[in-house]
Amino acid sequence: MLPVAYQFPAAALLVAGGLLSCLFGYRLFRFVLAIFGFILGALAASSVFGEGAGTAMAIAAIVGGLVGAGLLLAAYFVGVALVGAGLGALLVNLLWARIQGDPHPALVIIAAVAGALVATWLQRYVIILATAFGGAWTTVVGAAALLGNAATLKAASEGDIWVAYPMNPAPGQGWVPWTFLGLGLTGTLVQMYWTGGDRGRIGRRRSKLK
Fold first, then answer.
1. What is the DSSP letter of 199?
2. Is there a contact between 200 and 124 (Cβ–Cβ < 8 Å)?
3. DSSP label of 198
4. How far is it, in rounded angstroms, from Cα 109 to Cα 183?
5. Tens of pLDDT, residues 41-77
6. Contact 138/130 with Cβ under 8 angstroms?
């Protein structure tokens, strides 16, 4: 968790990066990888320090963010497989959260491998889905924090499960999965029809057929 003074700009960064990923993820895939690498690296590095070490935590967040962005950019050529593996693991965890506890590690590994293979085969569509829904969730969390949603800030600071698992919301946060799904589907449609790169745009194909 970042110091209080940095939480507002961090939330604004989440919203901006989330919307960019949600609506333009395929076209700007490298940039999106850098954004999410920075976010993950910043979260991991800042968690090493306690709340009292505000300056050290902020410096660690910046350094960790730059390292995370660099690592994901360096892995660009295997980025699609990594995205697919992450989606596979996430899907298993989401489904298991609705049933019971955490899934067996072997099941997560199998799902990650399957996701990587499918992602490599269906590269364009996997990138669109991953960036649309990943950006949607980032946007929801950032927007709620910007609006001063006390439950969101409390959950984020205490590591409550619904922050990582949008389909398993905290009590009183029933709007979360619906907003997440709605924004993710919107981002998917926008990328498929208008912003999804220079290959296979559905909208352009249909216009040529008329």
1. S
2. yes
3. S
4. 29
5. 887 887 777 656 667 777 888 898 899 888 888 777 6
6. no
Burial class (CB in 10 A: 0-12, 13-18, 19+), 21: buried
Report the 10 Å Cβ neighbour count for 121: 11
pLDDT at 205: 47
Residues 6 or more apart in contact with residue 96 via CB below 8 angstroms: 102, 103
pLDDT tens, position by position, 145-155: 777 655 555 55
Question: What is the rounded distance in angstroms from the CA atom of residue 20 to the CA atom of residue 35?
Answer: 10
Match 């999410």 to its residue by tokens.
36
Residue 2 Cα to chain centre, angstroms: 18
- CA separation for the pair 166, 135 (Å, rounded): 13
Between CA 28 and CA 40 the distance in angstroms is: 18
pTM: 0.70
pLDDT at 53: 64
Angle (deg, nearest 10), helices 4-24 and 175-190:
40
